[in-house]
Specification:
The chain is mostly helical. It has 16 helices and 2 strands. It is a multi-pass membrane protein.
């Protein structure tokens, strides 16, 4: 039963990385777009692309927290007590990012738009770094067992955490660039398609370099995870991630946006899956296994039933939202819907 819940949690993590990560990555490109005049076109595309879906994507994060504290309470306690600094920074960053994104579209002065735009962009970089640093701290054994607190600084500012945090930022930027190429193509904006295609190619190469550095760091700081990544069931996802990333890069160079988007999703999701499989059977590497950290069987059964109900009720709404967004049938944020005008 605990294995089933762990699989659900891993799938949710991969889903959040693929959807929520792209939203954060869009903020990275907002940050690097340049001044008001030069950056107007890419920022406009970013706002139109993430506006209808950015709030919905954080549902996956809430789902991850709820499943973790319900199914693995002592491990959740250890993680939150040890990682309270990056978790607090990430929470504040998510709030600041959302508020800034909303207010930037409402203010009229250039100075105010710069303030809110800067807050949105900086928070978009800080949040994925914190999440990646947390994952690196867990993988390298910096979270103690038994619901106890570890070092609040070294737990997330160690070599593994710094590399995984940087990798999270780069992967988010990569996904966002690939998605924005497709969105620009759908909007018949050739200039922006070329703009983000170039950035997607560059970030793909940077992501590969950072991933290689991450493997080197893991070999010394998290040998249990590293050994399983190259010699166990974690190896196939690693290989698939490499092949998908390379295939996406080739398609981006050849300007095949649709295929590149699908392969980019597979490449990033496989990184999450390989990390989860490499840690197995440990939830906290070499100290707490998934089965030992699990809540009573009755709790796990009730949780799986709740997850099944959520899939039946919530997932169709997500699918409808993304389909309507891809077909450009949703109004932009702050724009009155034609149906509302008709009803009025």
């Amino acid at each position: 039963m605990s294995t089933a819940v762990a699989i659900v949690l891993l799938v949710a993590l991969a889903t959040y990385a693929v959807f929520g990560g792209a939203d954060f990555g869009a903020g990275f490109w907002d940050l690097t777009a340049g001044g008001p005049a030069r950056g107007a076109a890419p920022r406009g595309l970013i706002e139109r692309s993430i506006g209808p879906v950015w709030e919905a994507n954080h549902v996956w994060l809430i789902f991850i927290f709820v499943v973790t504290w319900s199914a693995f309470p002592l491990a959740y306690q250890s993680i939150t007590l040890t990682m309270f600094v990056p978790l607090t920074i990430a929470a504040l960053g998510i709030v600041l990012r959302g508020a800034s994104f909303a207010f930037r579209k409402s203010v009229v002065t250039v100075r105010s738009r710069r303030v809110f735009g800067g807050a949105f962009a900086l928070a978009s970089v800080l949040v994925p770094f914190c999440f990646g640093a947390i994952a690196g701290g867990i993988a390298s054994g910096h979270v103690p067992a038994g619901g106890k607190a570890g070092d609040p600084v070294d737990s997330w500012l160690n070599p593994t955490s710094l590399v995984t945090g940087g990798l999270a930022v780069v992967l988010a930027a990569y996904l966002a660039a690939v998605y924005l190429v497709w969105d620009a193509r759908r909007a018949d904006d050739t200039a922006m398609a070329v703009y983000f295609r170039r950035r997607a190619v560059v970030t793909a190469v940077v992501a590969a370099v950072v991933a290689v550095i991450g493997f080197v760091v893991l070999s010394s700081s998290a040998p249990h995870v590293f050994d399983r990544m190259i010699s166990s069931w974690a190896l196939p996802p690693v290989v698939l991630s490499v092949l998908s990333g390379f295939g996406a890069l080739v398609l981006l160079v050849r300007d095949a946006a649709r295929g590149a988007r699908a392969l980019a999703v597979v490449a990033v999701a496989c990184i999450i899956f390989s990390w989860g499989v490499a840690q197995w059977p440990y939830l906290l590497p070499e100290s707490v296994t998934v089965s030992a950290a699990a809540a009573p069987t009755g709790t796990l059964v009730a949780l799986l039933v709740a997850v099944g109900v959520a899939v039946l009720i919530v997932l169709p709404g997500f699918v409808l939202l993304y389909v309507l967004d891809q077909r450009r049938l949703l109004p932009e944020e702050g724009v009155e819907d034609a149906a509302d005008r008709a009803a009025g």
